[in-house]
Amino acid sequence: MTILSAIGLTKEYQMGGVTVTALQGVDLAVNKGEFVAIMGPSGSGKSTLLHLLGGLDGASAGEITLGGQALGRLSDDAITRVRRRKIGFIFQFYNLLPTLTAEENIALPLLIDGQDLAPHRAKIAGLLELVGLTDRRAHRPNQLSGGQQQRVAIARAFVTAPEIVLADEPTGNLDSRAGTAILDLLRRSCGELGATIVMVTHDPRAASYADRVIFLKDGVVVRELRTPEPNIPAIVEVMASLEL
Predict the structure, then answer these.
(1) Is the CB of residue 49 less than 8 Å from the CB of residue 9?
(2) CATH no. of 31-58+71-241
(3) Cα dist from 123 to 100, 117, 187, 197, whole Å
(4) CA distance 237 to 210
(5) What is the torsional sign of CA 141, 143, 145, 148?
């Protein structure tokens, strides 16, 4: 079942009187439970696409549908509610609040949405266990390693049981060992939580964890590769053929 789709997605910016096209007619469909990676060189439109899919920016043309809702037809307040309740975000630099504990950072989206935490305590405890931080639940970000902070950020992204999680270079600020642990965790979350993930990355190793890799160049989808098993050489070969 398709949970997220984009049809004819175009994004243009005005820079010094010049129109810059960041995305041009992008079509995309993501199925429930799927892990999709988006790859491309700097300036290819990867982050722009992720921001549009997450309702963080508006498209110049085209339509995005999430769970049957056309985002472009919603009011600003309705878009905000969709972001809070239906979309989880994972960023490269964690974006944790330094004064809150790991457990409190995980619960933050629920508090922002005005929800009572009592019914969610078991879920938060389960997420702490999933990311391996039960014994660090009372630690603040400065007491955690980079990899541990990203684990908190992942648990936070899943606490609202979102329809989709959008990850922007989630391993870009981590060493190889911590990055591998995060990718393993994202992969497991698809099976254990039924998660749907769209991840932007420049790293073929990270992309190899996905079910499908979409390649962008100059704002256009130029290739798609299915990866039923991790296959870094195949991804590198496509990148070379496309001069990415």
Answers:
(1) yes
(2) 3.40.50.300
(3) 18, 10, 19, 20
(4) 16
(5) negative
